[in-house]
Design a protein that fits this description.
708 residues, mainly beta, six-stranded mixed β-sheet, 9 helices, 11% helix, disordered C terminus, binds [4Cu:2S] cluster, binds dinuclear copper ion
């Protein structure tokens, strides 16, 4: 059953023409030739035609415009969460308008949101450090919305950083990152993030094999010492955080594990992972060996990994079944084999994407170097496992199922098939990288229906709720890797091209091109907007969004103060239109300054920003938000601080000063020390011993007026 994305279904040109005629009739301009003289609403038809002529638009263009145009104040029915690729962020995009609503800061400091410029968000980023090294970027790949019974529930979003093997948790109450976890077990990941049907686990599969837990091993020992792995991060929905202690991993052979999908409904309790490089090619272009890519493409088959994760979780909980590597419980390969936790089935050449059908009964795998989509039957796979009917074992002893006995069939889809999404009615969409097209086909009947060209070299595709138990169909976004000539040239680095396609009609229709100048997004998920219930403000005022608690250092109006303590100067500051209290902070060179700032406002969208020149402090203070930011005032001088959001008519006046007095006997601050005998100019830092000007904050040691 297909629905129209708009209240007025305009799938067909004839209907569009009729609609245009109706508009013309309503305007009274249809019967007379020529425009109506009395102006007003008249002459709509003529002007529409003129507009179309002037802009060179045909009817299908106008129909596309009508399907995507979203008047002011109208919200989109769908929201897409797309990975931001090398930006390390997540993009939030309205569908069908393709309006960008937010970049969620994840693996990368993001100044506007104050992410990575304050104590708590610095702590989130620091949790993703490896070997004490700060990683200030990430290669974000596969967002996964939390699920309940295999359907998106709109509560949380997870995403992986392929480059550094990290996973982030984003709370959709405020669309902000709350946690980054890094196992230390693997060096890179790709098969993440994918969630099990009730978000019991967030799955992270490795990509490039390496010694588990880090460390060196000669590449000649690849087959013996390099390993793959899959990590099952336990998600605590109550806390909204991953529970590291309850998480576990499985050692895998050093095939490059690729994408992952969790079984659902009939296949609930299982996960499926692609892999490539069963050849164990190691590259060595200067060492007389073939490059990795050709070495890894010799065999006709790679292996789909089949894992009963519920059983694996039980085994991980048993005494003596795991070993600890990098602080993580790991099920060694021999235990997996003796406990029946790992099976292989062949997949045609360089598979990319294993996508479980909405009813959970089948898995579709596309091979980059194969023109087919292969449809696996979960029942057939399960039957062989139950009967212990294996065709062979791989070199590590993993049982291999019969390919022929595991599939329902293969369909010739086109050149370079990659990723599959579902649109209901047993229908699927698969991206064709080499062909630059998306093919619509019936998984049920193993038949191709039609294709639509996209521009160009499409990677992932995202259909509305297209990887859940109940896909919506309607919209597809093709995430194209190459833009070439689609947009005004901007130099050699071109934007990515997202193309919105209407998949509800008998013919797929291209609706919109959206350039993405941020990084290369890989996957995206599209959720019904009405499943999302973000908060308007943090309430009551004083919530620390990272802890989701009322912050112990929350500031209420009238209780603002500056306190000198053993660990430095604590500034308890409130922000309200249009002033900070206190607005003068006096410290001594070398003091550590702890800012505790609460936006005490509860008005929707009354956001303030806070910065201090030079000290690289920036915070976003949404209504009710509390932030903490610490820095060492190691440079003496006068440093304006101000609100960076144009929050009110007197926003420019929402400012103050940080005065860092030079150390006794220390060098005066460059350029600010008054010449001996000069009277201080108004606004200058007062010389030591001066009486504070009226309205000034007291010196750090004295209590602030009004404080108790
Ligand atoms: S991958 Cu990018 S097109 Cu990293 Cu999901 Cu397939
Ligand atoms: Cu507050 Cu500008």
């Amino acid at each position: 059953m297909r629905h129209s994305p708009l209240p007025f279904p305009l799938h067909h040109r004839r209907r569009l023409a009729r609609a245009l005629a109706a508009i013309a009739l309503l305007s009274g301009a249809a019967c007379n030739s020529g425009p109506n003289e009395d102006g007003g609403g008249a002459g709509v038809s003529a002007s529409l035609n003129d507009l179309m002529k002037e802009r060179g638009l045909d009817e299908s263009n106008v129909s596309a415009a009508l399907k995507t145009y979203t008047p002011t104040g109208v919200h989109d029915p769908y929201i897409m969460f797309a990975s931001g690729g090398q930006s390390g962020q997540v993009l939030v995009i309205g569908i069908p308008s393709m309006r960008i609503l937010k970049y969620i800061a994840v693996f990368t400091p993001e100044p506007w949101q104050g992410y990575g410029y304050g104590d708590e968000t610095n702590t989130i980023l620091a949790a993703g450090q490896r070997d004490g090294r700060t990683l200030s970027w990430g290669d974000s790949h596969h967002p996964a919305l939390s699920e309940t019974n295999g359907d998106y529930d709109g509560q949380f979003l997870f995403i992986n950083d392929k480059a550094n093997a990290r996973i982030a948790v984003i709370d959709l109450k405020d669309f902000a990152t709350k946690q980054i976890v890094m196992s230390g077990l693997i060096q890179s990941d790709h098969g993440g993030t994918f969630v099990t049907p009730n978000t019991e686990y967030v799955v992270e599969g490795a990509q490039y094999p390496a010694p588990l837990g880090g460390g060196y091993a000669p590449i000649e020992r690849y087959a013996e010492d390099y390993k793959g792995a899959v990590i099952f991060w336990k998600f605590d929905r109550e806390k909204g955080r991953i529970d590291r202690a309850k998480s576990f991993a499985m050692e895998l052979p050093p095939y490059m594990q690729d994408l992952t999908d969790a079984g659902k409904l009939v296949s609930d309790g299982w996960v499926f992972l692609n892999s490539l490089n069963t050849e164990l090619s190691i590259g060595g272009t200067l060492e007389g060996r073939p490059p990795l890519e050709s070495g890894a493409s010799q065999n006709d088959m790679d292996y789909m990994h089949i894992i009963p994760w519920r059983r694996a979780a039980e085994v991980a909980g048993m005494a003596g079944k795991t070993k600890e590597i990098a602080g993580m419980r790991v099920i060694p390969l021999d235990v997996s084999l003796s406990e029946g936790l790992l099976y292989f089935v062949g997949e045609p050449k360089s598979p990319h994407g294993v996508d479980v059908t909405p009813d959970g009964s089948q898995m579709v795998v596309a091979g980059k170097l194969d023109t087919h989509g292969t449809v696996y039957s979960f029942a057939k796979i399960k039957a062989q496992i139950d009967q212990k009917k294996f065709e062979a074992k791989d070199r590590y002893g993993v049982p291999i199922l019969s390919f022929k006995d595991s599939i329902d069939g293969q369909v010739e889809l086109g050149l370079g098939p990659l990723h599959t999404q579902y649109i209901g009615d047993g229908m699927a969409l698969t991206s064709l990288f080499l062909e630059s097209a998306v093919v619509r086909w019936s998984v049920k009947d193993l038949k191709v229906i039609d294709k639509i060209p996209v521009h160009y070299n499409v990677g992932h595709i995202a259909a509305a709720e297209g990887d859940t138990v109940s896909p919506d169909g309607k919209y597809l976004v093709a995430m194209n890797k190459w833009a070439i000539d689609r947009f005004q040239p901007v130099g050699p680095l071109l934007p990515q091209n997202f193309q919105l396609v209407d998949v509800s009609g008998s013919q797929m229709q291209l609706l919109y091109d959206m350039p993405l100048p941020l990084g290369e997004p890989h996957y995206a998920q599209i959720i019904k907007a009405d499943k999302l219930h973000p908060e308007d403000i943090y309430k009551p005022a004083g919530v620390n969004p990272v802890t989701a608690q009322h912050d112990p250092d929350t500031v209420t109006a009238g209780k603002e103060r500056i306190e000198r303590r053993a660990d430095g100067v604590h500034v308890f500051m409130s922000a309200v239109r249009s002033h900070f209290t206190p607005d003068i902070i006096r410290v001594k060179e070398g003091d550590t300054v702890h800012l505790h700032i609460t936006n005490v406002e509860q008005a929707h969208d009354a956001t303030h920003g806070f910065t201090i020149d030079l000290y690289n402090v920036h915070q976003s203070l949404e209504p009710g938000k509390h932030v903490n930011a610490s820095f060492v005032a190691d440079v003496p001088g006068v440093f304006p601080m101000y609100c960076t959001e144009f929050c009110s008519a007197l926003h420019l006046e929402m400012a103050g000063y940080l005065l860092v007095e030079p150390k006794e006997g220390g060098a005066p601050a460059p350029g600010v020390a008054p010449a001996p005998g000069d009277a201080p100019a108004p606004g200058d830092a007062p010389a030591p011993g001066d009486a504070p000007a009226p309205g000034d904050a007291p010196t750090p040691d004295a209590p602030a007026p009004g404080s108790e």
